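Dear H.,

Thanks for agreeing to be a second pair of eyes. The structure we're designing against is below in token form, covering all 279 positions.
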């Protein structure tokens, strides 16, 4: 890299996209604050890149830990160029039977954890008058499937406030990108996907179908997380990055269907919709 290497601040760096981003960035010479709940899981990388990697211990549901990690990063390198909000997990379950404490828990991590991280980093980005915020969403940030409504709701929320954020921080030359992967070969469909602790027998058939789909998917997803990480890095270097970054054929095809469905419904009801205005 030419000049001073950029600084990335990544959440959820132990596995999946977070780990892949960390590895690829270090190979390219970037400086990385890879935050995670278990820093020892990156001991191998820290030994290999002692000058360009720090691994602050952060649980994104604990804002004080996030603020301290941001402080350490700025103290060490003087800046943060890219925030990658990657920490999160999947929550399966039907709308009627998923325990509410488990619903609130996934929102605490996927939505409020991301929001607290953004708020902690923004003062630095505004002072610099530059920066990129990569919010790792999902294709379910646009569409939702049976048995995954609450996870989808967290990603819908992430995308909604990301869109407002992109407008609000534009005066400081801060860019916001929502990354919308389809199925990628991480541990998302395995360890990182939780099912309700209690279930209603009325939904047994739907659960059996969902379990079969996720079991079959786990470890066979089409998406390559290393290629996904490389694309995120490439987009972060663009002067005018896209607000939405779908990743993978599945995501692209689902977005096409999503647009078609919206257009179909609008065409059927357009005149009646317009007719609700005052004359």
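And this is the sequence the design step returned. I haven't edited it by hand at all.
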């Amino acid at each position: 890299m030419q000049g001073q290497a950029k600084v990335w601040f990544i959440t959820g760096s132990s596995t999946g996209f977070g780990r892949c981003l960390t590895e690829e960035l270090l190979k390219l010479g970037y400086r990385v604050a890879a935050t995670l709940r278990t820093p020892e899981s990156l001991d191998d990388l820290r030994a290999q890149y002692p000058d360009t990697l720090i691994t602050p211990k952060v649980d994104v549901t604990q804002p004080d830990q996030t603020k301290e990690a941001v402080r350490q990063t700025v103290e060490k390198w003087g800046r943060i160029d890219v925030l990658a909000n990657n920490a999160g997990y999947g929550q399966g379950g039907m709308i009627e039977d998923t325990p509410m404490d488990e619903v609130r828990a996934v929102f605490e991590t996927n939505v409020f954890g991301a929001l607290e991280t953004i708020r902690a980093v923004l003062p630095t980005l505004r002072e610099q008058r530059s920066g990129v915020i990569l919010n790792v969403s999902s294709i379910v940030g646009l569409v939702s499937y049976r048995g995954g409504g609450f996870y989808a709701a967290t990603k819908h929320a992430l995308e909604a406030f990301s869109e407002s954020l992109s407008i609000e921080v534009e005066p400081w030359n801060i860019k916001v990108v929502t990354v919308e992967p389809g199925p990628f070969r991480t541990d998302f469909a395995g360890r990182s996907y939780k099912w309700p602790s209690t279930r209603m027998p009325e939904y047994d058939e739907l659960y059996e179908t969902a379990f079969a789909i996720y079991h079959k998917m786990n470890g066979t997803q089409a998406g390559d997380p290393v290629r996904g990480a490389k694309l995120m890095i490439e987009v972060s270097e663009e002067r005018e990055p896209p607000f939405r970054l779908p990743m993978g054929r599945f995501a692209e095809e689902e977005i096409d269907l999503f647009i078609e469905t919206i257009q179909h419904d609008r065409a059927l009801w357009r005149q009646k919709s317009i007719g609700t205005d005052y004359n």
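Two observations from my side: The mean pLDDT is 92. The two ends are 61 Å apart (CA to CA).

Warmly,
E.
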